[in-house]
Design goal:
Structural class: alpha+beta
Strand content: 5-15%
Number of strands: 8
Radius of gyration: 18 Å
Order of helices and strands: HEEEEHEHEHEEHH
Distance between the termini: 49 Å
């Protein structure tokens, strides 16, 4: 059974988040974070309280708390840390995967991180060191998706493995564990998670046909797709 745990380290109280403009930005970001976490459950990317989400507002990183079902989270449960990991918002204990989230936020300009235990992606993470380039949408994640070597959850070693797997990438697999994607927004990070899970499912499906081997795209073909994707969508 999941239960709320309090750290006793809370800095700015959650009851004050409607005060300054910065506080209001944090309140809006928290609402979006909770919505994203709930969406990951509804879409079957996590089970229970597995997986976690973070979003950066200024120098504060809002994160899902440890062991609290997402449907129970309220505005008063806002949980935030600074980039050194010191809790500055709320009293609930931050996610056990805080080192991993902070490693990503400190390494680049990502504003949002989504970590899941998606079934197909986790299955692929146990089979290969890199997701085969089964589809050109690998380019949307920066190229072939690497698998970060296994390390116990919540450890600095796992955080470092993920950081290295994300060099020049916006997503990676965690061996025997799950996925992690980043983005400029929560929506972008989440969309990349969903795309990664879909590509993993596609590769597993194609690989399961007896006597046949899936055709894979070359590095040049993936790079060409990346160039085309930069101009995809509606113009300004």
């Amino acid at each position: 059974m999941s239960e709320r745990r309090h750290s006793g380290q809370g800095g700015r109280g959650a009851r004050n988040i409607q005060g300054t403009r910065g506080d209001r930005d944090e309140a809006r970001a928290w609402d979006a974070l909770v919505e994203t976490a709930r969406r990951s459950v509804a879409d079957g990317l996590v089970v229970g309280t597995s997986g976690n989400v973070s979003v950066r507002v200024g120098d504060t990183v809002l994160v899902t708390p440890s062991g609290v079902p997402y449907d129970r989270l309220t505005p008063e449960d806002i949980t935030g840390v600074d980039l050194a990991g010191r809790q500055v918002l709320g009293s609930l204990v931050p996610t056990s995967e805080l080192p991993m989230h902070l490693a990503v936020h400190r390494a680049g300009d990502a504003r949002a991180v989504v970590h899941t235990h998606a079934v197909h992606a986790t299955a692929v993470s146990t089979l290969v060191p890199e997701l085969p380039t089964i589809h050109y949408m690998a380019a949307a994640l920066g190229g072939p998706v690497r698998v970060a070597p296994y390390a116990p959850y919540g450890t600095e070693q796992l955080a470092e493995n993920v950081r290295l797997a994300l060099v020049d990438r916006t997503g990676c697999l965690l061996q025997n564990h799950g996925t992690l994607t980043l983005g400029a927004t929560l929506d972008q990070a989440y969309d990349r998670t969903a795309q990664l899970e879909w590509m993993c499912r596609l590769w597993l499906t194609a690989s399961s046909v007896p006597g046949l081997t899936p055709h894979l795209l070359t590095a040049e073909q993936v790079a060409e797709a990346g160039e085309r994707l930069r101009g995809y969508g509606q113009g300004a």
